[in-house]
Amino acid sequence: MEAVVGLLVMLLAVSHGVETTCDVRQKDGAQCYGALGGTVDLQLMDRAAEIFSITKNTTTILRWKNNKISPNIKADKYSFTPSDGMLRISNLIRSDTDDYTLQIRNSDGALLENRTLRLSIQAPVSSVRLVTECLSQGEMRVSCSSEGGDSPQYSWTLDGHTLTEDKLLSGNHETDSITLRQDVEGVLRCSVNNHVSHFEKYQRIFTCVFINCTDSNERRITQWVFAATNTLCVEPTTDTTVDPSLICGLQTAVAALLFIGIAAYFAWRKNKSQRAEGSAVPQEREDPETSV
Questions:
Q1: Does the keyword Heme apply (predicted)?
Q2: Structural domain spans, the chain
Q3: The domain made up of 16-122 is a member of CATH 2.60.40.10
Q4: pLDDT at residue 159 tops 60
Q5: Which terminus of the chain faces fewer neighbouring Cβ atoms within 10 Å, N or C?
Q6: Architecture of domain 125-209
Q7: What is the pLDDT of residues 16-72, one digit of tens each?
């Protein structure tokens, strides 16, 4: 069920695109941004004036008079809400980047207000990837790359704090690639954003260690690697197999000791029996009368 919901959300995001807003009320020369393929809402006024028009460069895209829009407007592209003075531009493309001018007039046609805004269309950031590697002295280089996205801006934090010089060997917290000093570890975050999107990527980083060993193919390896994920050199396991000849020798020794023990036991029993028989024979005594 969760997978289906996630797929629906993804499809909705693709079909509707990114929506942005820009408030240009009482502002001249405002800068607004829209996402490529998305929609932008331009807050032109609090509510519709009696007569006004909007031009893109020199082409009129919307004209309002007598509480209605001129019939030549592209309904699938531009829409206006009189109650809140909002102009919506949908299905944004690169060519929508341009200057837009709002002119408000009174019932006599006199110009009351003239304002211009700049709309810029940007491709949103779609994903972020972190790549880490150990360098020759145990430092760590981390690169942050993004898919899509016009004019991306980068920022870094370590364990929630902005990276400082005591952690950085080169680069800064606003570049796409940094080099961290030895023994720096923790949760690293790279943020990529532009005016229409924002993406973040978290990764736990570990220190680099130097290995000098021989692998299973008898190849010598000397390099810096990540301590937590080192699989290049694995310590050999102790062979617990017993030599069969040793087992045979031990069995022979045990049998010999057992035989000697049995022989000694029966010899002791025989000797004890002979002593018992000797002590049971009565001794002759001399008669005092016949003695000399």
A1: no
A2: 16-122, 125-209
A3: yes
A4: yes
A5: C
A6: Sandwich (2.60)
A7: 479 999 999 988 999 999 999 999 999 999 988 889 999 998 899 999 998 888 876
- Amino acid identity for residue 129 in this structure: R
pTM attached to this predicted model:
0.67
According to the model, what pLDDT value does residue 58 have? 87
- Tokens at residue 85, please? 């003075």
205-230 tens-digit pLDDT: 988 888 788 777 777 777 788 776 66
Q: What is the mean pLDDT of the chain?
A: 81
pLDDT, average across residues 263-286: 62
